[in-house]
Structure of Aspartate aminotransferase family protein:
Amino acid sequence: MSHLPNSLEARDVAYQLHSYTDARRHEEAGPLVIERGEGVYVYDTSGKRYIEGMAGLWSVALGFGEKRLAAAAARQMEKLPYYHTFAHKSHAPSVELAEKLVAMAPVPMSKAYFTNSGSEANDTAIKMIWYRSNALGQPERKKIISRVKGYHGVTIASASLTGLPNNHRSFDLPIDKVLHTTCPHYRTMARPGESEADFARRCAQDLEELILKEGPETVAAFFAEPVMGAGGVIVPPQGYWEAIQPVLKKYDILFVADEVICGFGRTGDAFGSTTYGLEPDMMTLSKQLSSSYLPISALLVNEKVYAPIADESHAIGTWGHGFTGSGHPVAAAVALENLKIMEERDVLGHVRQVAPHFQARLRALARHPLAVEARGIGMLGAVEFSHEMLRDKPGALGGRIFAAMQEKGLIARNLYDTVAFCPPLIISEDEIDAMFDMAEAAVAEVAKETGV
Ligand code: PMP
């Protein structure tokens, strides 16, 4: 990094604490400062170009530098830069976006509620669920089940839902009332000789056993991503959702589909719930909703969830919840324009066209001897590498491959030894080839260095 005292790098180290970063290591290594973006590419301050193979954080669906989104933000800024939705107030962008999202939902939904991040959406979902249980005269029905390796955010309740050690360790999490059931990763979790279908059934049995152990009358909801993202891109085994959903129905447990990554085309359908035939009672949405040009998230709730909340708010005199930025007009205007562009350009059609190539190249990358598995669907994928080959600690190999890719001009993401790819949805076949050519060259280089 540049050590000039006034460089951005030096000032970054001096003043900024980074998310998901080893702070002491950062003091030594410094940041990679990104200056601008165009299409699937971003450029650092030295002018070096990178393919953004993760669309930022699984989110910049339309790619970087989309002028229509900037124009939509500017128009709304000039007209009404801010207003809220508290105490019966409203504004056109929030109304239009709520209407649009309810219309797009893959199952009948009643209302949209706006928040600013995926974490806030999931946190709000838990508060809605607790409020609803009280409204229904079932105060004991408060436990929430999510899954080991699920990712639902980092606020106190949503980090509790998240089933990953780094989000709990030293944070005194998870909170009680949040329980985790089996991760549906066939390769690592199946018993010897267990078929994929049997493993899927056992995941549902594990869920049912947990519900029975806790007491079905105490379990309020189940949270899950249709395809797990940050936990390592874990695609559910065949028959998984078909086995899980009847268990939830049997015990009248609400199903919250966390569509923060899957939503808006990532799996090749409008929602991951569409791809897997899910019938959620609530959905949480963010990221590709605005291509992350501005922070915004939303919850969709069905009538079964909405009606008791409405009644309780009437009994109390208010639904005592809301963020200053809930339904922010500029973020909502950008989200609306983003969805409009996706429709006009048939981004979903494009995803369906190029996803088979993306998946084929992903699987080709996983044929390297250092790799153990490729996982993916639509424009979401990951290759898991084997740290055991290096006799090194988990994550070391993934970290090396990630660094070699970045050096070559590809930004991917390593989740321990799994390297994830989640490019902007607008990526072309040639750009997919460029991305995987760099990934293959990086893996070959690391293999050569390590003698594997
Ligand atoms: N849910 C899922 C499935 C996510 O992938 C994420 C973020 N990666 C979140 C929730 C949390 O979103 P945020 O970072 O906006 O709080």
Summary: The longest strand covers residues 371-377. The two ends are 30 Å apart (CA to CA). The chain has two domains: 32-65+346-450, 69-344.
